Automatic annotation (TrEMBL), chain A:
<feature type="transmembrane region" description="Helical">
    <location>
        <begin position="20"/>
        <end position="40"/>
    </location>
</feature>
<keyword id="KW-0813">Transport</keyword>
<keyword id="KW-0472">Membrane</keyword>
<feature type="transmembrane region" description="Helical">
    <location>
        <begin position="224"/>
        <end position="243"/>
    </location>
</feature>
<keyword id="KW-0812">Transmembrane</keyword>
<feature type="transmembrane region" description="Helical">
    <location>
        <begin position="303"/>
        <end position="322"/>
    </location>
</feature>
<keyword id="KW-1133">Transmembrane helix</keyword>
<keyword id="KW-0997">Cell inner membrane</keyword>
<dbReference type="GO" id="GO:0022857">
    <property type="term" value="F:transmembrane transporter activity"/>
</dbReference>
UniProtKB/TrEMBL annotation, chain B:
<dbReference type="GO" id="GO:0016887">
    <property type="term" value="F:ATP hydrolysis activity"/>
</dbReference>
<protein>
    <submittedName>
        <fullName>Sugar ABC transporter</fullName>
    </submittedName>
</protein>
<dbReference type="GO" id="GO:0005886">
    <property type="term" value="C:plasma membrane"/>
</dbReference>
<feature type="domain" description="ABC transporter">
    <location>
        <begin position="261"/>
        <end position="495"/>
    </location>
</feature>
<keyword id="KW-0762">Sugar transport</keyword>
<dbReference type="InterPro" id="IPR050107">
    <property type="entry name" value="ABC_carbohydrate_import_ATPase"/>
</dbReference>
<dbReference type="InterPro" id="IPR027417">
    <property type="entry name" value="P-loop_NTPase"/>
</dbReference>
<dbReference type="InterPro" id="IPR003439">
    <property type="entry name" value="ABC_transporter-like_ATP-bd"/>
</dbReference>
<keyword id="KW-1003">Cell membrane</keyword>
Length: 327, 499
């Protein structure tokens, strides 16, 4: 009887925690506290309009963070996401505006080019045994370079209305197409990581690649696919950003890799791999999004904002370490 | 009178040491004496407190209560450095060396002598070379540690302790990673240092070693000292019973003689790395084949190749008469071949994950046949496996909280839940205490009884001889012969293993 009761309480705990698998309960509480604080200090914070604004602002990072979650789960890192984002936007703008291709085709080509960047990084990591940090650092430079070569560093401005409207028109007064894409992708990745064997396999690979290999998991293939997926999502983020800004420039997305990694890590993922999840990443992205938004509403200077976000990253990870130590 | 002489002979005396972690008592009121120039063997099951008492003596852990006297002075080290400077060195089961640094740098790490503002390299190289010579070790002090074999790395650890003029060395499972030859050499070193007046506390699970090397034996059980013997020449049965606290009928289960059709056939396989050459053997359903040999004989490499983990350069592996492809572990799994790997922490388990997740990982084809995982099904599957293999733990418990024996059962549970046809176990009881070993042996015999073809690789000769219907002996990558159970004894196996 006693053991039965014990099991039951264990189960409930597991279910509650499993929504934010990867120890994101702490960050989630932090997010709640942040929202409560901001709704008292700013009049505009707790309005639907402001919330929708934040959603628009986090779309780019939110989409990239999904791919970065997979990469970090594997125990890897992808520094090239910001550059791939820029490359994707430039390919799209060049094909659509300079060459006059149909815009839809341009989007597809931009995504394919982005995915190729990820595949190349993945091959460098799996076939040449390069550390992910170095391989993606190389790709960061390569993709940024190509993005600049396309127009010799010039920006491309003015896209078709239907395309820009994807990021502007809020259907039913709520969600733009781009925000919807982010939400749908988030759900897909959440389900994939939690309920598909291939998703669980990533936790095994990140936890211990040798154990995973002996368990029959194709570690190299998984690694290759994850970097490809991450780059594909970065490319998609590039398309989304182009729609939002109605322009593409080779210098966009600089520093986004850091924001993206920060979001994933704030969400409780471990850079050592094997720990983390979409639930946590969503929390991380929202914390960064609400924090930026709230600080803007409170008229805090962008320089001070940078400091505060740095402090939040350090605090989130330190809190996680403390909890791990207490266990 | 004799009391007096023992007193003066004693260099370390431990009195009433108790250690509590929260409400858990891991050591209670332990008294222990170590005499000048002796080897005191410390025996006990995993969790008996052997490592805790040695950590306390070596300053890694501080006792809750109790006192120690070291060479007549009170001894209460607050750190390993304190203990080391007092002359007590602990040599870990797993080496704690810096692989990218030289032997000499490792020996003097943390106390590199400075001359004219710079590290005195020629000085440390000279002094390290002296100690290496003293240990009969023919390696240059400038060699990088990562280029040394495990046995040599251990010698470097010893050299490190000796440069600190250690008077007491504590060895925690020193032979776990050593082969027979290397063990012998280690014992020679111990004898030599003993003659120079160095004392030893020697922790090992291998009772035959204890009989060979120890002068006295102390047995711990559940954190208490249950016996001390003035000699190490004791019946194994006595020691085992003291360790487990209950009489043991027999260590090995009976083997079923009902053996079926030939299932696994290995024909002339050669490793791509050259670790083994032209090895052939076969295993029938319900049969246990033991693979014996000294470390480095190519046993692990052989079974890893059969499990698809390492490439094969030539030869054929057949299951039920059909040749199979082995380019990835998943190929072997698809054919019903599972490997319970040698190093459960590095190859068998994902330590921070739960028992359920570890067990589920290899079995999603059963748990989620349609590709959708129901967390409840994972839990149910894990509970069944936990029950079947007698794992002491809950499905949602992390595996790094389990004892070695229970971790090994989780590895076995995860592999066997696939209902494989061929089960290969590499060193299934390494680092596992005696009581838990018997349970593992029972599981292995049970697998054979269920009609699986079982291969057991072990450095523990008794284990191979006690468990297997037939024993194949490898030496330097070559199959030196397969002995039937009746003909297989220690002498016959060792003769083949050392050719």
């Amino acid at each position: 009887m006693a053991s039965l009761a014990g099991t039951k309480s264990g189960d409930t705990k597991a279910t509650w925690k499993s929504y934010f698998s990867g120890g994101a309960v702490g960050p989630f509480l932090g997010l709640v506290a942040l929202c409560i604080f901001l709704s008292f200090t700013s009049e505009t914070f707790l309005t639907l309009r402001n919330f929708l604004n934040v959603m628009d602002q986090i779309t780019v990072i939110g989409v990239m963070a999904l791919g970065m979650t997979l990469v970090i789960l594997l125990g890897g890192i992808d520094l090239s996401v910001g550059s791939v984002l820029a490359l994707s936007g430039m390919v799209l703008g060049y094909l659509g505006n300079n060459l006059g291709w149909p815009f839809a085709v341009g989007i597809v080509v931009a995504l394919v080019v982005s995915a190729l960047c990820g595949a190349v990084s993945g091959l460098m990591i799996t076939k040449l045994n390069m550390p992910a940090f170095i391989a993606t650092l190389a790709m960061m430079s390569i993709a940024r370079g190509i993005a600049s070569i396309i127009t010799d560093g010039q920006q491309i401005v003015g896209f078709p209305d239907w395309f820009s409207n994807l990021a502007i028109i809020r259907h039913f007064g709520l969600l733009s197409a781009t925000v919807s894409v982010m939400i749908v992708l988030t759900i897909i990745f959440y389900v994939f990581l939690k309920y598909r064997p291939a998703g669980r396999a990533l936790y095994a690979v990140g936890g211990n690649p040798e154990v995973a290999r002996l368990a029959g998991i194709h570690v190299e293939r998984a690694t290759l696919l994850v970097y490809t997926t991450c780059a594909l999502l970065s490319g998609l983020a590039g398309v989304i950003l182009s729609a939002r800004l109605d322009s593409a420039q080779p210098s966009s997305g600089i520093g986004y890799e850091l924001d993206t990694i920060a979001a994933v890590v704030i969400g409780g993922a471990s850079l050592a791999g094997g720990v983390g999840g979409i639930g946590g990443t969503v929390v991380g992205v929202l914390i960064i999004g609400f924090l930026r938004n709230g600080l803007n509403l409170l008229h805090v200077s962008p320089f001070v904002q940078q400091v505060i976000i740095g402090v939040v990253i350090a605090l989130a990870v330190a809190a996680d370490t403390f909890r791990a130590r207490r266990r | 009178m004799s009391e007096q002489s023992i007193q003066s002979d004693t260099i370390l005396s431990v009195r009433g040491i108790t250690k509590k972690y929260g409400s858990v008592t891991v050591l209670s009121d332990v008294d222990l004496d170590v005499r000048h120039g002796e080897v005191l063997a410390l025996l006990g099951e995993n969790g008996a407190g052997k490592s805790t008492i040695s950590s306390i003596i070596a300053g890694l852990v501080q006792p809750t209560t109790g006192t120690m006297t070291w060479m007549g002075e009170p001894h209460a080290p607050q750190s390993p450095a304190d203990a080391l400077s007092a002359g007590i060195g602990l040599i870990h089961q797993e080496m704690r060396l810096l692989p990218a640094l030289s032997v000499a740098e490792n020996v003097f790490v943390g106390r590199l002598p400075i001359r004219m503002g710079r590290v005195d390299r020629s000085g440390i190289n000279r002094r390290a070379a002296e100690q290496l010579r003293r240990l009969g070790l023919d390696i240059a002090p400038t060699t990088l540690v990562r280029d040394l074999k495990v046995a040599a790395q251990q010698q470097v650890e010893i050299a490190k302790a000796l440069t600190l003029n250690a008077r007491l060395l504590i060895f925690d499972e020193p032979t776990a990673a050593l082969g027979g030859e290397e063990t012998l050499r280690l014992f020679e070193r111990i004898e030599q240092l003993k003659a120079e007046g160095v004392s030893f506390i020697y922790i090992s699970h291998r009772l035959d070693e204890i009989a060979r090397i120890a002068d006295r034996v102390a047995v711990l059980r559940d954190g208490q000292l249950v016996a001390t013997h003035e000699t190490a020449q004791l019946p194994v049965k006595t020691l085992v019973e003291e360790m487990v606290g209950r009489p043991l009928d027999r260590m090995f289960p009976d083997l079923d003689e009902a053996i079926g059709e030939t299932l696994l056939e290995v024909e002339d396989i050669t490793s791509a790395s050259g670790a083994f050459k032209n090895v052939s053997f076969s295993v029938r359903q319900g049969e246990v084949l033991g693979i014996a040999g000294i470390v480095g004989a190519g046993r692990t490499e052989l079974v890893r190749a059969i499990a698809g983990a390492d490439p094969i350069a030539a030869g054929v592996v057949k299951i039920a008469g059909k040749p199979i492809r082995l380019s990835h572990p998943s190929d072997a799994l698809d054919q019903g071949i599972v490997l319970v790997p040698e190093d459960r922490k590095a190859q068998g388990l994902i330590l921070p994950q739960t028992i359920a997740e570890n067990i589920a990982q290899t079995n999603y084809d059963q748990i989620a046949p349609k590709g959708w995982i129901n967390p409840k099904a994972v839990d149910r599957f894990a509970r069944v496996a936990i029950e079947r293999f007698g794992v002491k733990g809950r499905a949602e418990q992390r595996v790094n909280e389990l004892s070695g024996g229970n971790q090994q059962k989780v590895v076995i549970a995860k592999c066997i839940s696939r209902n494989p046809r061929v089960v290969i176990l590499d060193e299934p009881t390494r680092g596992i205490d005696v009581g838990a070993r018997a349970a593992i042996y029972e599981v292995i015999a049970g697998l054979a009884r269920q009609g699986m073809a079982v291969v057991v690789v072990s450095s523990d000769l008794d284990e191979v001889l006690g468990l297997a219907h037939r024993v194949m002996v490898l030496s330097r990558g070559i199959n030196r012969g397969i002995l039937d159970r009746e003909k297989a004894d220690r002498v016959a196996v060792m003769e083949l293993a050392t050719t």
